[in-house]
Amino acid sequence: MGGDERGTTERVLTLLGLLQQRQVWTGPELADRLGVTPRTVRRDVERLRTLGYPVHASQGVGGGYQLGPGQDLPPLLLDDEEAIATAVSLLAGAGGAVAGAGDAAVRALTKLDRVLPIRLRSLVRALSGSVESMSGSRTTIDPDVLMTLVRACRDEVEADFDYPSGSEVRRRRVEPYRLVASDRRWYLFSYDLDRDDWRSFRVDRMSEVAARTWRFRPREAPDAATFVQEGVASRVYPHQARFLVQAPAETVRAQIPASAAVVQPRGSEHCEVLSGAGSLDFALMHVLLLGHDFEVLDPPELRSRCRVLADRLLSAGATDSPDPARKES
User: Which residues does 102 contact at the CB level (< 8 Å), separation at least 6?
Assistant: First the structure.
């Protein structure tokens, strides 16, 4: 590409950037910004129109050049900060903040990755390829920690970090696979090399996070989002319970936060609910208050608790029970 042609291309891209920044520009204003004559501005506007950008021109007071909507969506011109901000926003969409937006957001991230400079492309690829979500919004964490982890997931290299365990803080060495966003927090889904098993870790509890140079061969892994959700909603509690609920999974998911229970469809009219709690009675009452008929699947002893609590509720609601306070008065 010759110098004149390169200069024209750069100038046209600069013109496009200016038109995207403000609603209306006059010809003299654009000429002054670009260091050219108004005639050159008119020629560059025609070049943009040829490329599919609908640049409108109007005369008189308040008139000028304006970039308007067109029949087809032309490419956008983004600077580095805008590109990163766009990637983060798309990441939020991929995280399920907007219903049905996840797949579209991932596709948009993929397209953005193709056209970004190399210095930014790896960052967007890390974001689009290493993050999954259950639903909802997330707490703020150190972006350097997040990026260290997503790059480790992308590059398939081991990572290590300090993590609290009881009253101690221990160094953990893992093969990182995915970052999963829950209702409130980020979790790292990984293979714990010291415990020889799959584990999930809260990112906000990590410190001294580092990516190592040792690469690993990916193992056959369970679904990251499901694994983390089961851990958040069930495995961290001393008691777990499973129920068959006579309602569609979509209906029950709208009633229960993703961090409180795992809801799996069982046909079009039923679903299975896996929940954890400090006591089985609490898990039972939580499902009862959903307002649907249900059946206890596990554990077997929860069925007997159903009968005990049912008798207690019937007794409390009996109309012929004496009122001790009224009798004493």
Answer: 93, 94, 95, 96, 133
Question: Are 177 and 189 spatial neighbours (Cβ–Cβ below 8 Å)?
Answer: yes
Which CATH number describes the domain made up of 3-67? 1.10.10.10
Non-local (6+) Cβ contacts of 212 within 8 A are 152, 157, 158, 159, 160
Fold (CATH) for 139-221: SH3 type barrels. (2.30.30)
Cα distances from 41 to residues 26, 58, 65, in angstroms, run 10, 14, 10
Contact 262, 230 (CB under 8 A): yes
Record the tokens describing residue 103, joined without a space. Answer: 């797949």
Domain parsing of the chain, residue ranges: 3-67, 78-133, 139-221, 237-316
Q: What is the pLDDT of residues 6-57, one digit of tens each?
A: 678 888 888 988 887 777 899 999 999 999 999 999 999 999 888 888 899 9
Q: Structure pTM?
A: 0.52
Q: Quickly tell me which residue has 């995915």 as its tokens.
A: 178
Distance CA 145, CA 209 (A): 6
9: three-class secondary structure by DSSP? helix
- Per-residue pLDDT of 168-184, as tens digits, reads 999 999 999 988 876 66
Helices in 131-230 by DSSP H: which ranges?
143-155, 224-230
CATH architecture of 237-316: 2-Layer Sandwich (3.30)
